[in-house]
Input
Amino acid sequence: MAAEKTFENEIKKFLNKLPNTWYFKVWSGPYSKSGIPDIIACINGHFVALEVKAENGHASELQKRNIRLINESNGIAYIVYPKDFENLKERLIELCRS
Output
């Protein structure tokens, strides 16, 4: 879990540097909806959801379903692993330009 939190903090640090970007960290609890991605953002008018995973982490079927539903709704959603971080940064920078 510590590796996932460290990676999540790297993502949030990167998001803080992007122009026209707002985000929040979803805190799950007994009254929240299950399977919601970890970070919800608006980047230059684009809805973005990020499910953060440590390198050895696995998304649940519900998390995968929610990512799929967001993408089918014309949002942008990813399950993000540390090995994909550079690619994610490029994609999010592109959103700032569009």
Remarks:
- The domain at 2-97 is CATH 3.40.1350.10 (Trna Endonuclease; Chain: A, domain 1).
- The chain has one domain: 2-97.
